[in-house]
Design goal:
- With 326 residues, this protein is an alpha/beta fold.
- The chain folds into 2 domains: 7-74, no CATH class; 87-323, TIM Barrel.
- It is 31% helix and 14% strand.
- A 10-stranded mixed β-sheet has the order 1-2-3-4-5-6-7-8-9-10.
- The chain is globular, with a radius of gyration of 19 Å.
- Bound molecules: pyridoxal-5'-phosphate and iron/sulfur cluster.
- Residues 90, 97, 99-100, 103, 105, 150, 320-321 line the site of pyridoxal-5'-phosphate.
Amino acid sequence: MQTNVPLWRQIQKENFHSMNALMDFLELSSELRLHVLSSSHFPLNLPRRLAEKIQKNSLNDPILRQFVPLIDEQIESFKFVLDPVQDKEFCKTPKMLKKYKGRALLVTTSACAMNCRFCFRQNFPYETKDKSFEKEIELLKEDDSIEEVILSGGDPLSLGDGALSSLFSMLELIPHIKRIRFHTRFPIGIPERIDASFLSLLASCSKQIFFVIHTNHPKELDQDVLGVLRKVLRLGIPVLSQTVLLRGVNDEEEVLLSLCKTLVNGGIIPYYLHQLDPVQGASHFEVSDEKAVSLVRFLRENMSGYGVPSLVREEPYRLSKTPLQA
Ligand SMILES: *Cc1c(COP(=O)(O)O)cnc(C)c1O
Ligand code: SF4
């Protein structure tokens, strides 16, 4: 066995990629299997730990619905398109998006710990050959209006610590960059990613770091996941969360309330609740604005103000995410 392969990489190798293997693991009846897509342009990619949380022989599980391709993806809807947020229009390079004042977003990698069926970037033309960030660093140096660099993707935690560390050292040499923000879902699937090596990388960074996780259901947040996020918090790094509102997953008052309470009890601030980006194949996840607004009103009436996320939608050509009146 190779000793220099970190544990999280070994765990990641155990992800489910085969629909048949997963359906057997979930003990799905032959009747339920008819509702599952055997293949998709956006392949199955599901960490074991998430698969283990799925209720057996059911298609109504909130984790299953987020990660397992169902025939509902074949429902056609003119509103649901390949590039719903028009990322392409805002690409300064194939790996850098500049949409809002003061912030630039780096698409650090195409890889994720898990493939979410509703991912708005599932058709993004990822640059996979050139893995360096030379062009991006040049642009960041030239534009002193940029104070914050967002590491997104794909999932930035798919990069190894070596790659992250060299990216950090380049960013640290740019004085006008004050903050580095992670957008990641990795710890939900593979909390082992937040290991001693990664934590020491965070601790050694001279810029203020913000750590934003993507989580949609309280079942995703077990003690291991919350435990590693607590270690990030202890470094003086704020941890926030983003949630996508999804029909059949979290569009219920009690589910969202439990999600927000679990987060704040773990020291994590709910930042955004996103209305779904209308990407092709995801129309079955759509929740009406009216319902979204009423769900957030319920949250506001039932918990601390800091535990209520802002309800927003991403619209191309706006100066910020668009808040919905709640
Ligand atoms: C959402 C987003 C950001 C971050 O916006 P905040 O409101 O600061 O969280 C930055 N760049 C792009 C391209 C985005 O889509
Ligand atoms: S983790 Fe984020 S980027 Fe990756 S598939 Fe899910 S939504 Fe898309």
